[in-house]
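Appendix C reproduces, verbatim, an entry submitted by the partner laboratory led by Prof. M.T., so that reviewers can inspect both the input and the predicted structure.
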Amino acid sequence: MADLLKLKQQVEEFRKAYFYRNRQAEENRQKENQAAVRIQSWFQACKVRAYLSHLHKKAIILQKTWRGFAARAHVRQMVKAAYFTMKMNFYNEMAVRIQRRWRGYYVRKYIHNFYARKNYLEQSLIKNELMRKELDEIEEAQKREKEYQAAVKEQKTKIYQAHQLHHLLSTKQRPGVFNSPFRQTPHEMELLLRQVKYQVPTSLAHRDTDYPKGIPDSVELSFPGFLESQRTKSTRTWDLRTRLPPIVTKEHKAKNKKTMTDEADDCFKLKTYS
């Protein structure tokens, strides 16, 4: 009986302790949960970081191996290409040398003859000199022709002026404008005036004589149909207008021009020969 009471007391104490501990556990559960979560997260982070570090090292090993293999293959390909290029350059250089020697030999033997080339150049020089001489002669002839034409034109101009100024020619009684007594020799225009022939001007056309009003004519006019002739008085007024020179025809102009040209040529020839 005493044991039963003692057991009941222990059960009651155990119940109180249980509820107390449960209450304490409920109060500390959130803190413990947060602490557990922090510990687990830290542990898992360490575990993941270690795994990632392991993977990174293995990836580096793989990449290093592959890159080394690819680089060695690329270098081998570059060496092959460089060796092939070197062989082709050597082959081309040797081919160029052989072709140069062969073409030089072929050209010297079958195409270009040294002595024929030398003769051709000498003939070209001679022909060039002849052509230059001919061109110089042609140029000189053209220059002389231009000078001759200019001299003829100038002489024609002087002769024309001499025809216009022929009235200024010197006479025995009085020297002309171009023959000054203070000159030792006559002027060039004076000599030209002496050489040029004087051209007589064409006579004026004959016109009927007009009389003043009231003066009878001295000529009896006979008209057919009239029975007798009688003196008539002129009823026309005196014409005070100046008489104009006759109209020069084309034939007269051509004749004068030809005469002047012939005289200019003769004077120029005399001057040239003298």
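Confidence is low (pLDDT under 50) at residues 204-242. Additional entries are available on request from the coordinating office.
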